[in-house]
Each structure stands twice: as structure tokens, then as C-alpha cells.
Amino acid sequence: xxxxxVIGASGQIGSELVDALVDAHGAANVVAGDLRAAATPSAxxxxxxxxxxxxxxxEVVAQHRIDHxxxxxxxxxxxxxxxxxxxxxxxVNALLNVLELAREGRVARVFWPSSIAAFGxxxxxxxxxxxxxxxxxxxxxxxxxxxxxxxxYYFRRFGVDVRSVRxxxxxxxxxxxxxxxxxxxxxxxxxxxxGEPYRCFLGPDTRLPMIGMPDVLRATLELMEADAAQLGVHxxxxxxxxxxxxxxxxxxxxxxxxxxxxxxxxxxxxxIADSWPRTIDDGEARSDWGWRPQFxxxxxxxxxxxxxxxxxxxxxxxx
Length: 319
Ligand code: AKB
Prior knowledge:
Rossmann fold; alpha/beta; 2 domains
């Protein structure tokens, strides 16, 4: 049992992670922090928190006797290109503020997610290994590589217990994602559920690694509960579930919605996707802490079709 703080608790992953942590530690031991409360509030205490405000963060951690922090606040790959400096400031300084708390001994353990976006055009794109060239072309990816280096530095230099996985594109059904390149997959489900056609911003054959929210939550909690002595990676673990293309996803969704139409109009996000891995080798996560995905591609599509609400707003609809 731990007392945990989730920073970025109203976001796509945070809003669902809070409930998974309640199941693991009890509602009384979970605090949700964000700039604004989630649209679907949880049963836990919410605190207004700008993670760039180090003094406020320190106050929240002390007041709630927090020992584990999940730092999820970030700007993603596509929105990050419209505001690169803001992306650097938020993504790197938010992590640094939490690492400093751990260095000072105010929290015992930190979780911070990296991403497949940490890889780049010269990385091996198929079965991308744990250790390879990392030359991201987006500011989001640059912050992920910098964050990984910071995690390893704080572990080696100060003994900080910080744990991390490189999330693939995440498919959840509670809170829409906010400006990623892999968001097309969720948008495709949204459109199909509404009975509307979908215009995809990536080309039909763009293969990307993806993962469903139940696997994301399990991976995150399992890594945080793993015995520290078993963990050989102190930057960020590769994590894989399934990899698919927009055309493959379209065909799979048509089994539930036979008339569903998709057209393709690649935009600037195509170049981002083309610089990322197609498939990931997550052998070290499997051998160090026993990672196994629960959902394959077919299972993920069936799960999402059930889980995603019909009335979710389409991107840009303003609703
Ligand atoms: C994005 O597309 O930016 C994110 C990610 C892969 O980290 N979903």
C-alpha cells in the first residue's frame, strides 16, 4: 500500500490510471493532480496543481504524505510542433521537479513515461531494440530522450528510484487523447461509432506500435511494483503489444460497422509517423519484470469497439 500522486490526472492516461491505483491502494491513498479536474471525476481527492510550480508540488507531496509519484503531464508529438519551447519547458522541467523531490528524499519512487517518439529516422524501425540510435525529429521526442537521460542520471548519481516505459500509441476510452500522431486510431473508432466516415491524417500503410489502455495500466503498475533488484534498465523500457496500419484497423472495424468508410489525406503527421518504429522488441521488459500484453490486435479492436462511447466529440468539433 502506497500513498500516490498522479500528476496529469485529467489526461488520457491519467484519468484511467487514477482508478487503477484506487483498486491497488484504496481511494484514501490516491491524490489526483492537474490544472483542471477530469471531465469524468474519480472518487479520489483532486488537487489543483501546475507541475512547473515546484513549491506547490512540494507542498502537495508533504501535505498528503505522498511516497509514489506518477508524472504524466506532457505535450504530445503533434501539438508539440506548434509550441516547441513550451513543450520542452513542460515536458522536461515537470520531470526535473519530481526527480528533485526524489533526490531530496521527499518521495520514494517515481514513474515517468517515455514514448516510441524517442526514436527517430536512423533508429532501427523493425523490432526496434532496447538500445539503438535515438535521433527523434520532434520536440516531443527530444524531450523524451532528454527525460530518459535524466532518469538514468538521477538513478546512477543519486540513487533515485525512477521507473519508465516507452509507451506505444495508447488507445483508451475514457478521455480523448490530446494531440498525438497515433490519435488517428482513436479518431477512427470515434467516427465509426457515430456512423460517420473518417478522413485519416496518415496514409493507409503506416504501421505503428499501439497498445490498449488495460495493458498500459497493467504495465505501469507492474513495473512500479517490481523488485528493484530485477530492473536492469534505468532509462526507459521498450514496451510492445501490437502494431497495425490504418488500412488494417479500418478492415478490422468494418467487422463491427460494415459500411464504415475511410479516406486518406496525410498531413505533417505522416513525416513524424514515418520516423518512428514499426514494431518494437520488448524482450528486456519481458525478462526483467515479466511483461506480457493481454490484448493482440483483434482483441484490442473488440475491446475498443465495446468501450468507446458513441457520444465522444470528434476532433475539432468543439463539443
Ligand atoms: C503521440 O502520438 O504523440 C503519442 C506517443 C506515441 O507518444 N501517442
